[in-house]
Specification:
456 residues, mainly beta, Ubiquitin-like (UB roll), six-stranded mixed barrel
Length: 456
């Protein structure tokens, strides 16, 4: 019995040892790891010995461009993290050329390096039109990566006469200036145009515009202009002077410091102005018409004087008138007045005395005497009652007269102030009577040979 037990003891011990060894290997080889494939994480319990074994056990195939961390030959450890980044198509546009590749890299710097593209400070990097940084990390789950390298360009700008060296990655001159902080106005003078392609040999000129106010008859016009002279500014505003127009300051002067210009619109109008010319009176004797009566034989006609007048307007307001020429368009026609020359003897009773006369005239009567003027008259007759002073252009010397309230008289004196229908009645000192009144003077018959036909 004891011999039998000894016979089976050794195999049993061996069997137990093998079981214990297997159990130990089970616990030693069993591992829990984390696998990340393009950012997708999964927790895996595995008995694989190496990283490659794990991927094969999970049926995950590798390409030569994929990026595996750690490598496939690395022994697995419990709790280890395995990262697999799949290679994706990459297209790079640089210096006008396309480069296509497949890569597991996710930063522009490594992708450019793999493609053999050298980058320089100031270059611009775009992906699908979006600016990216050189060390920016693309998502690991991305399906493809497009990249564009825009080279920085050096160009020259002459700004208001000052030369500047600038750089930009913008495609056009206008966008480059905008990126450099320049605000461009439509009135600015930029050469070449803002939409010109930016090249390394480009030399641009920029003349800035400034605000300007132009005062017109209709109000103020505000604009921006890069013009230097007043005339250039008015032309830019489509307000160039026309004809007689002028500006303050003048068109040839520089724009003033207050940036204010006044434009005066000038127009002229030529008028024909007419004024009447008065006609003269001409007198014509009419034999069958009684003395001291008149009638119109011909009414006459006004003449006409014409003037060509130039009227100047500034901003619609008249400022001057100038006569260019004048002429008589129609001569006046004299009015013909007929006056009577038929002398008729008249009879009347005045102061109780019956007299015969051929003319009666209303005259203003005054009186004088020797103590005022002396006793000798212009005719040589002594000054006394019955001698009167008259205007001899109307009443000839020695005309016989009768003055009511005075009596018979003879025109035999003159006086410095006796003019027209004024009669100065003579007296002696002893019988002087002062006169200051209107009176009817009768011219006694017979009439003289030298009658004054028309009395004023």
């Amino acid at each position: 019995m004891i011999a039998k037990l000894k016979k089976f003891r050794l195999p049993g011990i061996l069997l137990v040892g093998i079981l214990l060894l297997c159990l130990g290997l089970f616990f030693v080889l069993r591992k829990s790891v984390t696998l990340s494939v393009n950012g997708d994480l999964q927790r895996i319990t595995t008995y694989a010995l190496r990283v490659g074994d794990l991927l094969r056990s999970e049926a995950i195939a590798l390409s030569s461009q994929d990026k595996l961390t750690p490598t496939a030959e690395t022994w697995l450890k419990n709790g280890q993290v395995i990262t697999l980044t799949r290679a994706v198509p990459v297209r790079i546009l640089a210096d006008g050329k396309w480069t296509s590749t497949v890569s597991a890299e996710r930063t522009p710097s490594r992708l450019f390096a793999e493609a053999g593209v050298t980058v320089y400070p100031g270059d611009l990097f775009l992906s699908n039109g979006r600016q990216v940084e050189l060390d920016e990390q693309f998502p690991v789950s991305v399906q493809s990566i497009p990249l564009q390298l825009v080279r920085t360009i050096r160009y020259t700008l002459t700004e208001d006469g000052k030369n500047l060296g600038l750089t930009s990655t913008a495609p056009t001159l206008g966008s480059a200036l905008w990126a450099a902080g320049y605000t461009l106005f439509e009135a600015d003078q930029l050469t070449p145009a803002a939409n010109s392609q930016l090249t390394s040999d480009l030399s641009a000129q920029l003349v800035h515009s400034s605000p300007l106010t132009i005062q017109t008859q209709y109000g103020e016009v505000s604009l921006r202009t890069s013009a230097k002279s007043v005339g250039q500014a008015l032309k830019a505003a489509n307000l160039s002077p026309q004809g007689l127009d002028y500006s303050l300051p003048t068109s040839t002067e520089l724009i003033p410091g207050n940036r204010h210009i006044r434009l005066i619109r000038v127009t002229e109008e030529v008028l024909i102005e007419q004024t009447p010319l008065p006609f003269e009176n001409e007198y014509q004797a009419v034999a069958d018409m009684e003395l001291d009566t008149q009638s119109v034989v011909d009414p006459g006609e006004y003449g006409l004087r014409a003037e060509r007048v130039r009227v100047r307007y500034e901003d619609g307001q008249e400022v001057s008138r100038q006569t260019d020429s004048e002429w008589t368009a129609r001569e006046p026609q004299a009015r013909i007045i007929g006056y009577g020359t038929n002398v008729v003897m008249q009879t009347t009773t005045v102061d109780g005395v019956t007299i015969q006369y051929w003319r009666a005239v209303s005259m203003y009567a005054t009186s004088y005497h020797p103590s005022e003027v002396g006793d000798t008259t212009a005719s040589g007759l002594p000054l006394k009652k019955g001698v009167v002073a008259v205007d001899t252009s109307l009443i000839p010397f020695y005309t016989q007269l009768y003055i009511p309230g005075y009596g018979n008289a003879v025109a035999a004196d003159i006086g410095g102030g006796v003019i027209g229908r004024w009669i100065d009645l003579g007296y002696s000192d002893s019988d002087y009577v002062p006169w200051h009144s209107w009176v009817t003077v009768y011219f006694l018959w017979p009439p003289p040979d030298n009658i004054v036909w028309i009395l004023p």
